[in-house]
Amino acid sequence: MSAAPDAVARRLRRLAEELEESGLPPQEPGELQEMLLHEIDYALRPVVHERRVASLGTILEPRTDPGTWAAGAALDIMRGQIANQPLSAARRFADGLSSWVLRRTDGTDEWVVFDRPAGSERDLVVLAEVLDATLVQRHPAGPVRVVGRFGVLRWQGLAWHHEPPVRSWIDTVTASSDHGNPEVLGALLEFAVHDLGSRGIGSLLIYRSDTDPGPPVEERLPTPPRLQIREAYQLAPLRHALAQIDGAAVFDRDGALRRLGVRLVPSSAAEEAVEAFRGTRHTSGRRYSFDDPGATVIAVSEDGPVSVLRNGEVLGRSPADD
Fold first, then answer.
1. Which residues contact residue 222 at a Cβ distance below 8 angstroms, ignoring those fewer than 6 apart?
2. Is the pLDDT of residue 178 over 90?
3. pLDDT value of position 129
4. Which domains occur in the chain, in start order?
5. In the structure, what pLDDT confidence band is assigned to residue 269 with cuts at 50, 70 and 90?
6. What pLDDT is stored for residue 7 in this prediction?
């Protein structure tokens, strides 16, 4: 039995308040706000058939020229009109990976089908930027995400977690040219937030812009393949490896992986000068950054938040859940 209209309206009002408190900018009342709330509500209350929970993907009100989408997203895209099919029926075909429902307030809804799955958080961020749209996804693994100009909102089961756009960090992280290539730093930060933090993969990423050996570390694993942080197709094996090891990953000035699983060995000066910060991973990363002041260290917590460390200081952090 469907909920009464008054009950649905109350639920949507509560949802709007929760989203705004969590980081979604206030929405202008109107058809787009109502559409967005209904899509998020539907994603949070999915259809269950024979104990299977359906995934879902909806693109809302894209603002850019569709002719630019394929090149910008590096996807082959097939589009088609939904026409008179009811929304409830159209949603059955939108898996939030390769196939999506695209909705507009003027009613010109479409199918959008990609030539490959594009359902990771990184993919959603790229799509939201290229289309200048808001995306709502229920991933087959369960997470619900809302992605747009405001960044990423992830449903954590009991509350929403907001990741601001990574570009809001970039000026702080790349303020000095002494710390390497801004494009590499940006790619490392995107990887940390959207590939590692979103999956709960705790890691330490070290970016060294110098060619000297740097502070001593304990190398415990063989030399890894030189995976490049700026090549999207090389990130999956890197992410897979980081999910299986402890220790830090070290990247050179060009963003190539040079060492993997290294144990950081702080100097006595670092231990005296730099206080403990969060857990063992963050503390060792912060002390390493004191010993290697030209390096940038990105620490990813298992529960998601990301910290950027340099010269023994915390340069920036993503929001932590209370």
1. none
2. no
3. 96
4. 5-163 (3.40.1700), 167-317 (3.40.1700.10)
5. very high
6. 86
Instruction: Dump the DSSP string for 84-99.
Output: T--HHHHGGG--SSSE
Return d(Cα 43, Cα 78) in angstroms, integer: 24
Residue 275 burial (CB < 10 Å; 0-12/13-18/19+)?
A: exposed
**C-alpha to C-alpha distances, 42 to 118, 158, 211, 295, nearest whole angstrom:** 21, 16, 52, 45
Cα separation, 257 vs 207, whole angstroms: 9
Distance of CA 239 to the CA centre of its chain: 13
Backbone angles phi, psi at 321, to 5 degrees: -75, 140
**What are the pLDDT digits (tens) for 233-256?**
899 999 999 999 999 999 999 999
Task: Compute the average pLDDT of residues 138-144.
Answer: 92
How would DSSP label each residue in 256-322? BEEEEEEEE---HHHHHHS---SSHHHHHHHHHHHHSTT-EEEEE-TTS-EEEEETTEEEEEPPPP-
With a pLDDT cut of 70, the percent of the chain lying above it is 95
How far is it, in rounded angstroms, from Cα 126 to Cα 305? 20
CA 51 to the chain's CA centroid? 29
